[in-house]
């Protein structure tokens, strides 16, 4: 985008770069879905709102409170993580064992409340955020990479590495993986499963917020960007295989590439339909996902 | 559960008859065009919610895409009337059939999936339908909408007035509730309740689980299509903004507020939540500022209702009313006991 590619090769490369950029964001949102699903077996329909909050709070801390950009971003992630923790504590925990239908409805309600809160607090307009480092795009074999895209990749990579360390090297991570396998058994082994679920919501919120704030310099943000990103993130999560963090990342990247390449070869009119079509196709054909060996959960 | 089901049933019939008579008499007693228009929209929502309640309360399935079926009905009806000059009744029939087919196409592959997957699949379906309404400009008129949809008419009789539209909508509400009530009371309803309790158990009893769910989904989609058709001819203008995810969620909230296992409760939920943003129609002296505030906070109200009902009264208004009735019944026959 923005650059005149002379050869089809560099055009293709440009689409791949765009796909990897969007795919990273999808991966962050998808991780949120998958982490919450792993500990609760429920879909958090408010996940997209954490993404929206990430951008909106960063804008507010930057231009409303005059914080420097890096601090505004950090405080935004912390704030949204706290929102996620609080959401579990107030609305999810009391009814956690009531079955997926109840949790779906509660998280849908949460999504509406969060969205309206953002509209009341920050207004109905689109809000921008400055790029993290100014400067011209970087030339990469004839394709252009915006500097903000590098930030997106870097921060996604940091988040994935940190999550991997959390899962493999810490006691909390082991507890989370145990809950993923079998919550009842984990509880019997003395794991505080309530705490694991609360932390899952916090992590999901923080990752969503990170995705939202790092992409805002390129796309702007608004109170109503949550649901469509939520659907895409869920499509990515289920494309990979729900409940498996690495599969969520793979699903996000795959979805980003699929979307970007079909825009390149088909038309941009139906850009937003691609993720939806992928979602429906995966649900119908292979609900366990492409990159996961989890058993089929259906009748 | 009362000790005298005969009496309970009789008082229920009396209540239903009273409501029907009151609704039918209203335009002749108090003919306020604005009130009748709002009540027509209430009726349209009751029709959709009747179908959604079947799906929800009795099949344990949640749809986040019913605005799509509503829209499919509205556009089918509108396009056939405006571009092809079909008579109204044929438009209504076509709207019901096309949305039923839409429901079938979505239900057959996805209803094999469990609750949360179906919710997402219907959400995605709703979003795709919205994009289609916007992008298929040649047919739907795109984002600018489709205008000039004629009022309902039967032969030479044109139903233009607020009174006639109101009566027409509530006639269809009656049809929809009768249909849904029969599905609940008869064999399919028992199958549905079994489904909700335990799918595996229902299957073991010889209930074709997938088939029953698909049937219910198709019925609920065609009721939404019927409502969409009524809406299109009443308003005369439709645009994609009437068929968004927000509407789908509001419809779910109506069922949740009313009570997921109760048709009457769901209808009550639709009445209450449709009236909130138009409260000035039923409360005469309301200030415009208050109405504005209510509309501004409408989404918050719906969101909070979804959470609060699920947290504190998962049975909704219906369960609350049931508990109240039980309490009254217990108190009445033995006043001396109540002192304790």
Strand content of chain B: under 5%
Distance between the termini of chain B: 24 Å
Order of helices and strands of chain A: HHHHEEHHHHHHH
Q: What oligomeric state do the depicted chains represent?
A: heterodimer
Distance between the termini of chain A: 45 Å
| Number of helices, counting only DSSP H or I runs of 4 residues or more of chain B | 15
Stretches of chain A where pLDDT is under 50 for at least 5 consecutive residues are: 1-7, 295-299
Give me the count of strands of chain B.
4
Largest sheet of chain B: 2 strands, antiparallel
Using the alpha-carbon principal axes, give the shape of chain A. globular
What descriptive keywords fit this protein?
heterodimer; A: 299 residues; mainly alpha; two-stranded antiparallel sheet; 11 helices; 72% helix; 2% strand; globular; B: 340 residues; two-stranded antiparallel ribbon; 15 helices; 4 strands; disordered C terminus
Q: How do the strands and helices of this protein lay out in sequence?
A:
The complex is a heterodimer of chains A (299) and B (340).
Chain A: H1 8-40, H2 47-64, H3 69-92, H4 100-122, E1 138-140, E2 143-145, H5 147-169, H6 171-181, H7 183-188, H8 193-219, H9 226-240, H10 245-265, H11 271-285
Chain B: H1 5-29, H2 33-58, H3 66-84, H4 88-110, H5 115-135, H6 137-140, E1 146-147, E2 153-154, E3 157-158, H7 162-185, H8 187-197, H9 199-204, H10 209-235, E4 237-238, H11 245-258, H12 263-275, H13 288-296, H14 298-312, H15 316-331
Antiparallel strand pairs in B: 1-4, 2-3
Helix pairs in contact in B: 1-7, 2-7, 2-10, 2-11, 2-12, 3-4, 3-5, 3-10, 4-10, 7-8, 11-12, 11-14, 11-15, 12-15
